[in-house]
């Protein structure tokens, strides 16, 4: 089902009391408040959204946060969106590109609750966005340890898969809804505006899956399984965790290794790490 309007998709946010509680944990670890201490590392509590490094202005989560690729995607889909898919899909317009993204900008990763996380990242863009935030990509060991939390379990919440706990294994695929084929159109800016009929958007705001939390001694981490896949520090190109329409029950052990680091689509985001103090 397609979102009724951009306004609905952008401003109808729930109250994330569970996410807010994470920032109320007494910070004795030395990590920034948007990060949790896990072992000797700090790791973002929430999947990253992007702002411009210089101005701090929010970058649209519906487009790649890289100027050249954004222009290519916008030009291509401005022509193509009205030519493919069902009649309803063809009538569904593209999200606007903010004025400050029409020229040069540089992405900076920000971890915060209640934000639409940014997909459309290559490994290289994810790496740069973390570096621009004074952080880095997480190693696989860091990421998996954080995901499993104190329980050391396969899923953030325990040892066995439970449907609906994390935003994964959804019943519809946005590319199929728009293009009639799940394998086509993965850079379409409209993909994250698809709703499951009678239910929530396919992509949740950060912290919205309140029962999908990894518990650590330094508070909670959110959405490490589901919502978006997340790049890790592997130059061969590896992302982990699964995204909302991926049919995986592997939890914290879900991993994709068959794409190059230059690959990107709507389903791949990032959360950052840094060395602990």
Please tag this protein with its features.
4-stranded mixed beta sheet, 7 helices, alpha+beta, paralog of FGE (formylglycine-generating enzyme), 4-stranded antiparallel beta sheet, globular
Short description:
With 277 residues, the chain is of the alpha+beta class. Helices cover 20% and strands 15% of the residues.
What does this structure look like?
Helix content is 20%, strand content 15%. It has 277 residues and is an alpha+beta fold. The strands form four sheets. Strands 1-2-12-5 form a four-stranded antiparallel sheet. A four-stranded mixed sheet has the order 10-9-8-11. Strands 3-4 form a two-stranded antiparallel sheet. The chain is globular, with a radius of gyration of 18 Å.
**Lateral strand order in the biggest sheet:** 1-2-12-5
Mean pLDDT: 91
Count all strands and give the number: 12
The whole-angstrom Rg is 18 Å
The rounded distance between the terminal residues' Cα atoms is: 47 Å
Fraction of residues in helix: 10-25%
Structural class: alpha+beta
Beta-sheet strand percentage?
5-15%
CATH topology: paralog of FGE (formylglycine-generating enzyme)
Shape: globular
Return the CATH architecture: Alpha-Beta Complex
Q: What is the total number of structural domains?
A: 1
Total helical elements = 7
CATH class: Alpha Beta
Low-confidence stretches: 4-26
Question: Helix and strand string, N-terminal first?
Answer: HHEEEHHEHEHHEEEEEEE
């Amino acid at each position: 089902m397609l979102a009724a309007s951009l306004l609905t998709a952008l401003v109808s946010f729930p109250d994330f009391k569970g996410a807010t509680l994470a920032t109320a944990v007494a910070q004795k670890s030395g990590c920034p408040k948007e990060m949790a201490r896990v072992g000797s590392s700090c790791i973002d509590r929430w999947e990253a959204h992007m702002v411009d490094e210089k101005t701090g202005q929010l970058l649209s989560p519906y487009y790649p946060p890289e100027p050249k690729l954004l222009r290519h995607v916008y030009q291509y889909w401005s022509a193509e969106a009205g030519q493919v898919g069902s009649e309803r899909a063809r009538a569904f317009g593209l999200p606007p590109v903010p004025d400050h993204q029409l020229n040069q900008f540089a992405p900076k990763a920000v971890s915060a609750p209640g934000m639409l996380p940014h997909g459309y990242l290559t490994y290289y863009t994810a790496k740069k966005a973390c570096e621009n935030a004074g952080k880095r990509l997480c190693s696989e060991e860091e990421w998996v340890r954080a995901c499993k939390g104190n329980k050391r379990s396969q899923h953030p919440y325990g040892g066995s898969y439970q449907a609906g706990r994390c935003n994964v294994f959804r019943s519809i695929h946005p590319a199929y809804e728009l293009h009639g084929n799940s394998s086509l159109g993965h850079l379409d800016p409209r993909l994250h505006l698809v709703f499951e009929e009678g239910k929530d958007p396919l992509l949740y705001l950060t912290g919205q899956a309140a029962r999908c939390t990894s518990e650590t001694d330094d508070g909670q981490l959110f959405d490490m399984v589901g919502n978006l896949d997340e790049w890790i520090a592997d130059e061969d190109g590896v992302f982990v965790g699964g995204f909302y329409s991926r049919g995986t029950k592997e939890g914290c052990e879900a991993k994709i290794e068959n794409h190059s680091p230059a690959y990107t689509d709507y389903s791949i985001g990032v959360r950052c790490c840094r060395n602990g103090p």
